[in-house]
Design goal:
With 306 residues, the protein is mostly beta strands. The chain has two domains: 160 residues, no CATH class; 102 residues, no CATH class. The strands form two sheets. Strands 1, 7, 8, 9, 10, 11, 12, 13, 14, 15, 16 and 17 form a twelve-stranded antiparallel β-sheet that branches. It is flat and about 70 Å long. The N terminus is likely disordered.
Length: 306
């Protein structure tokens, strides 16, 4: 009996050893390998380049000796340059960038306007130059910033950000802030815009032109009664790219203020409404030529202005 049991056990052992292993599903195995080889999703990182809550560092450098050479090469009289309105920044070891504000005496006033009624015509020109001899690499006049001295619209100094903005690993851009407003205590309009300029193949390229970074609109009685809507932004450079350049992310804050000053003679009581807020975001991508964005002149609170 014992020998019989041992014989059966041996047979069962041999049968188990002869079982075939389950075949490997090569297709599933390959899918697993491919999945493991996929790159992990890169977390988006942003670097703030403009924040309305902070004071920003603008370039204060202005080499007047170099500016004199630039003026001669531009065929502009140095005496016609507005020094207080002119600024510059180093672009690289060999190149400097200037915003030259000067009086263009070749611009004539429109017919029907009395001589000197509008004053001098102030023009602004962007120019990349050789740091050592002032030779012009490329130049471009910003026609949107040309204005007569006594016009109702005021255009202020164009400020250059102290630091270049890196658009990718090799390309840097000069960042500009331009501002204009009405010369009025009643109309509360102002406009501040953001521009990026690069030197590409020795040619000026406006990568981003006049993006609204701050804007106000409203009305006042010239005293304490007013209603005003304000747009303020935070602009950041993302580490994500489109067509070779980093995306720009914009956080927008719209606010609305409404105050009424007391006037006892007219029976008007003072009123201060709580400030209203609305927030939006926008991503601006490089399309291979420029950073393209849609002009948005719609007011979020002042509906009558739309």
């Amino acid at each position: 009996m014992k020998n019989y049991i041992l014989t059966i056990g041996a047979i069962l052992f041999l049968i188990s050893c002869g079982k075939k292993e389950k075949p490997i599903d090569l297709e599933k195995k390959q899918d697993t390998i491919v999945a493991n080889l996929k790159e992990p999703r890169v977390k988006e990182v942003e670097t703030t380049i403009y924040d309305y809550k902070q004071n920003h560092e603008f370039s204060e450098e202005l080499d007047k000796v170099l500016l004199a050479k630039v003026a001669a090469n531009l065929k502009i009289n140095y005496e016609d340059i507005q020094i207080d309105g002119t600024s510059s920044v180093s672009y690289n070891d060999k190149t400097a960038f200037f915003v030259v504000a000067y009086i263009n005496k070749n611009v004539k006033q429109s017919s029907g306007v009395e001589e000197d009624e509008l004053g001098d015509f102030l023009e602004r020109i962007y120019v990349f130059v050789d740091k050592y001899n002032g030779n012009i690499i490329d130049k471009e006049t910003d026609n949107n910033l040309g204005i007569y001295e006594h016009e109702g619209l005021k255009i202020y100094k164009t400020y250059i950000f102290k630091k270049l903005i890196q658009l990718n690993e090799t390309t840097g851009a000069v960042a500009l802030s331009t501002e204009s407003s009405t010369d009025s205590r009643v109309t509360l309009w102002s406009d501040q815009k953001f521009t990026l300029i690069a030197l590409v193949d020795n040619k000026i390229k406006k990568i981003l032109y006049e993006y609204p970074m701050r804007k106000t609109q409203g009305e006042s009685n010239g005293g304490g009664t007013f209603q005003m809507e304000t747009l303020e932004t935070i602009i950041s450079v993302s580490n994500k790219k489109a067509n070779g350049f980093y995306d720009l992310n914009v956080a927008k804050t719209f606010s609305y203020e409404d105050e009424v000053e007391e006037d006892k003679e007219k029976g008007i009581k003072a009123k201060v409404e709580p400030v209203k807020f609305m927030k939006e975001v926008e991503r601006i991508k490089y399309n291979g030529r420029i950073y393209s964005f849609k002009n948005d002149d719609t007011y979020r609170f002042l509906k009558d202005y739309n």
